[in-house]
Amino acid sequence: MTHGPGMNGLILDEPLLWEKGKKGRCGFSMVEQDVPEANLDNLENLLGDGPDFPDLSEIDVVRHYTRLSTWNFGVDTGMYPLGSCTMKYNPKINEKMAAMPGITTSHPLLEDKLSQGTLQIMFELQKFLAHITGMDAVSLQPAAGAQGELTGMQIFAAWFRKKGEKRNKILIPDTAHGTNPASAALCGFKPVAIKSGADGTLDVKVVTELMDEETVGIMLTNPNTLGLFEESIRDVTTIVHEKGGLVYCDGANMNAVMGVVDFKRCGIDVMHLNLHKTFSTPHGGGGPGAGPVCVVDQLKNFLPVPRVKHEKGRYYLEYDHPDSIGRLHAFFGNFGVLVRAYSYILSMGAGNLKKASQLAVLNANYVREAFRDVLHLAYDKPCMHECVFSDKMQHKYKVTTLDMAKRLIDHGYHPPTIYFPLVVPGAIMIEPTETENRDDLDQFVAVFKDVVREAKENSERLREAPTRTKLRRLDETRAARKPCLIG
Amino acid sequence: MRYLPHTTEEIGEMLAATGHERLEDLFSHIPQACRYQGEIDIPKPLSEWALNDHFIAIEKNIQTASAKAILVGGGSYSHHIPQIVTSLMSRSEFLTAYTPYQPEMAQGTLQGIFEYQTLTARLLGMEVANASMYDGASALAEALLMSLRIQKKKTSVAVSSAIHPHYREVVRSYLLAGSFNIVELETGPDGRTDLSKLQDIEDLAGVALQSPNFFGVIEDLETAGTAIHSVDALFISCFTEPFAYGLFRSPGQCGADIVCGEGQSFGMSQSFGGPGLGMFCCRSKYQRNIPGRVVGETVDIEGKRGYVLTLSTREQHIRREKATSNICSNQGICSLTAAAYMASLGGTGLRRVARLNYDKASYLKNALVECGARPLFNSPTFNEFVLNFADDFEPVRNRLIDKGIVAGINLGRFYHEYEGAYLFCVTETTSKAILDAVISEVRS
Questions:
Q1: Verdict on whether the full-model pTM lies above 0.80
Q2: Range B87-341 has CATH code 2.130.10.10
Q3: Which of A30, A288, A406 is nearest residue B352 as measured by Cβ atoms?
Q4: Which end of chain A has fewer CB atoms < 10 Å from its terminal CB, N or C?
């Protein structure tokens, strides 16, 4: 039996915050009262009692969160081959740059002349992202991938409004992220699902049949969520353009193709990037991310305002764009995330970005070959940065994808993405990323193969997993049926 | 490159295992017409040292980097951040984890968010909170969309003109695509939202106010709530400065149905406006209509208490285009940061700091009024206020900038009618010495 790194441990308990503390404790360094107390008399019935928060000392708070953190698993803890999420290493130096005092104290409402450095970072990052994708203009405002999608769909809507065309359908492949149809629906578009072809990619014939003059265009993901490159992308975009439509590309999987694919040459009109994936900013247990949107020239006037410009040695914000879809964020988006991505790109340079994509694809293909005999491969063709298997070969032992995933946890691995994409029943989607070395991949493969062997020889063990975590499997049905959302 | 661990030998052996000769061969199925031409046009890679120098040069170009104080709020506030909050939230177990899809490996994040939801609901006087939205502005847009979902047959919403101008712009962007009608409510002579015309607006699903509003004025939320409910609309109360509720009654106590706003004040640095935190609460009867992620309590198979993401049938991976929102993440580490911040303060500390904000802002406001400035509105304020000056304030402001103090912003860029009125903000981080320097500059 190959042991993963998770086979030893000591786990401390910790109650909820309000189950600790004593009235009168404080973990805050209080400033002195150097001005007289102001009169409260004119506040009549506006005054309240303040919230019922527990009072805790500094060490109470420190132990609380330190213990909580030990129940978590991050990229720094171990391998996190979560498909579609690009859980690569998040360099520490980027944290230092984002924490520079000049950056953290900069206020978003001051005049441009007081904010030249921060505007410079935004301007240069816009330029870098345009060059990396091949697109013409960039807005950094969207706070996440899904907000980038929403921005893109609003640009579609604004474009057709401007042209005076009424179109309300949009084509979305059945392999798409669930946010794609949700973002399109927010803009009043009716999603029309495109069934992917037998090889897991778009069938040009189906697109030709569905694309018409009531359809705004297509929203696709490339490489798609099966980890496959849409080889007919040029034909698809030509068909859509011929019918007057636009093409949106969800760029969630950009990590596979930096320096390899030019999205403008593919015929893409609008795409978003996930800086927290490809450009290595930490996921923070769910956020914050950043979802910049890149467009071709003819759509640049529709981008959100303000836009960041540079002229005669001066950076400035530009608001005067009557065609703009407006504002998506109170200020400029998740600036702190932008700083980290900027720092990452500067550390890597062109050659290393391309190398990162090559190694991400190499790692995924290596893992794909290693599992070929023990897991069912959903689509047997060259993969990009991730590969999708299923639990088909384990059905006879009554073991599911979920069981194998939970058993991997016992060995100290974060499981792959499971049950997505929906077109592969029991999907197991593995994205190793380029920052895993070969030894670690080999150990992961050996452990996973042991789990697969256990499925045959001791399947109960899998159904009981995980057994080595602080908690065993949780009752999600109960949580949803009788929601308890606050304590 | 130190982030890429493969040795040349390993690459060779791995390529052999996958049946390729060169790395380029892995991409041989990508059509030539799609290929990137040449090398990406970005600068040569920088070492850690060179990168550090590059950022130091940029920091020198941030003119406020050496400022002694910035007395400006408007949705981004300078509050003291305890070192423990920064240190704890830098722990990579929190920082480098993903959304807690595997709850057995993410109980730290999950319990942390459950605690965040609880403290947020207590602060705002509400029954349910979600795991957070992108920022205060998109939270408000989502709150209005939620009111339209709940009141299905209605198509209009009303928003106060005293709500942060940028928030109203975001609301327009979000609601533009649906065929919804947005009515702006005027600000009365007291600086509070004029609700007298509500009866004339048909089909109102929701009405949104901000308190303290963009002018710093505390709205009379209780009276507003009665007026809003009398036209059968949902009462949405938003905020940019949550510290206010350490001193003032919470929106929940005043009858709000949905409360949302910006939580940056609770432990996040200003960082040019992001990342912040969209706080979002509602009454429990509306919980299945709430947008975004939600964490709930449950038990494991041994009966031990634990936490999971829940109510996922509202979300896109199940509902796709029928989901309550397209948001599929939250502000993760920012919500944990806010919880750690609220925990460090405690109830006693929050009240104390809120009081200090009020005292210090009052000190500056009263002193400037004594120097001849006039408040634009006479209603009570918290840590922000608007003043008109007898003479142009801009030269004074410029002299103060030369001395390292940025005092106020001209409201003219947001409201033409208030050109020359300045919005100021004073928090606990500003010393009396700074305030006195501002006062003496105005006096001279």
A1: yes
A2: no
A3: A30
A4: N
